[in-house]
Amino acid sequence: MNYARSIAFFERARQVVAGGVNSNVRAASRPVPLFYREGRGARLVDVDGNEYIDYCLGQGPLLLGHSHPRVLDAVQRQLEQGQLYAGQHELEILVAEKLRQHIPCAELVRFSNSGSEAVHIALRVARAFTGRTKIIKFEGHYHGWFDNILVSVNPETLDHQPVRESRGQTESVLDEVIVLPWNDASRLQEVLATSAPDIAAVIMEPIMCNTGCILPESGYLEAVRDLCTRYGVLLIFDEIITGFRLGLGGAQAFFGVTPDLATFGKALGSGFPVSCLAGKREIMEQISTLSVVHAGTYNANPVSLAAAWATLQELEQNREMHYQNLFTLGQTLMRGIAEIAERKGRRVVIQGLGPMFHVAFTTRPRIRDARDYRDVETVEYAAFAYRLQERGVRIIPRGIWYLSTAHTEDDIAQTLESVAAAL
Ligand SMILES: Cc1ncc(COP(=O)(O)O)c(C=O)c1O
């Protein structure tokens, strides 16, 4: 592949944009962070005209693929009527009603723009409701880049001491966070038994998508739900990835465990910035009284809400077809990669459900937690990602693959040919 225009653009970008990218995770791509000019369905084209089958999908939001006509039509129609009112409009009600219909915990919602913002207001509401300050999070789980929760995503310590992920975060954020191993209900029970009066909430990705796509052990989510109820601690599911991807009701409907609060983003807006905090009425009423501040110039902007409304309608009206495709094609791809790797004598671990899954080079039989994840071969994986890119397949260099409803059997077959060559 020729990347001449991307390389030239990146040189220019570096003169005016810090690091040449606007989100640190984009810096990982080789030979430089690529520049793109067009996305359609499952395909993405860069500025040099190279075409890729895309499994990055905007880091997850493009569940319906790039440029879905129904979403773009809705957005275009909205644009003709204005882009921001700083006032109410009907789409807010329509989308909120749909969320309430499908998501078990969604008695009331509030919209923001990004996942990080939704998590931020979730934590604030939990603290206001309980009158407690500490938050339990789990090693390896990512809940956005804001100071108070960007802790122990890639842990360095052996004793679960909270670790800041960024220079510039103050040390005091660590006082409010307790970090525990995930999938270990007895450890959680021990901590709640001694510290519950200080703890406002337990927050988790209900599938640990950001580190190895690790599934909850059988009975674990139920056990956490029971413990939180018993100790009066709120349970927050961060469904920024699992939301709409596993089904219209998210992981909570998929697993049949209802949290007190849940955050959604990514797939909700098909690439337009919209996120949401959903929760039980009595907890969300903290915001209704206006004593808990939730604000934002762009919150529930009609353009993003038009995209969300179109996305939800599309998923609802073609529900069976879309979710069957996401799971079936995703699992075909997972199986195909595993078979090729075995033929080639390459040890891989592939984990996940299909709509999203994770591929890692490791000698372990499986990745059980953030510590197992620490010795996956990241350099080798990034090289694999680059070899796939050279063969017209775009994946995230960190290991998570996203499927869209636009991917076809032919895309999967073509991808597997590229995987065989790249491996
Ligand atoms: C589980 C989870 N929570 C929160 C976030 C933060 O969302 P955003 O990047 O939209 O701020 C992400 C982003 O990847 C995520 O995966």
From TrEMBL:
Molecular-function annotations in GO: glutamate-1-semialdehyde 2,1-aminomutase activity; pyridoxal phosphate binding; transaminase activity
GO biological process: porphyrin-containing compound biosynthetic process
PANTHER family: GLUTAMATE-1-SEMIALDEHYDE 2,1-AMINOMUTASE, GLUTAMATE-1-SEMIALDEHYDE 2,1-AMINOMUTASE 1, CHLOROPLASTIC-RELATED
Cofactor(s) required for function per UniProt: pyridoxal 5'-phosphate
UniProt source species: uncultured Acidobacteriota bacterium
Pfam families: Aminotran_3 (PF00202)
Pathway linked to the protein: Porphyrin-containing compound metabolism; protoporphyrin-IX biosynthesis; 5-aminolevulinate from L-glutamyl-tRNA(Glu): step 2/2
Origin organism lineage: Bacteria, Pseudomonadati, Acidobacteriota, environmental samples
Enzyme Commission code: 5.4.3.8
Family membership: Belongs to the class-III pyridoxal-phosphate-dependent aminotransferase family. HemL subfamily.
Entry-linked SUPFAM superfamilies: PLP-dependent transferases
Keyword annotations of the record: Aminotransferase, Isomerase, Porphyrin biosynthesis, Pyridoxal phosphate, Transferase
Highest taxon above the source species: Bacteria
Record protein name field: Glutamate-1-semialdehyde 2,1-aminomutase
EC supergroup of this enzyme: isomerase
PROSITE patterns: AA_TRANSFER_CLASS_3 (PS00600)
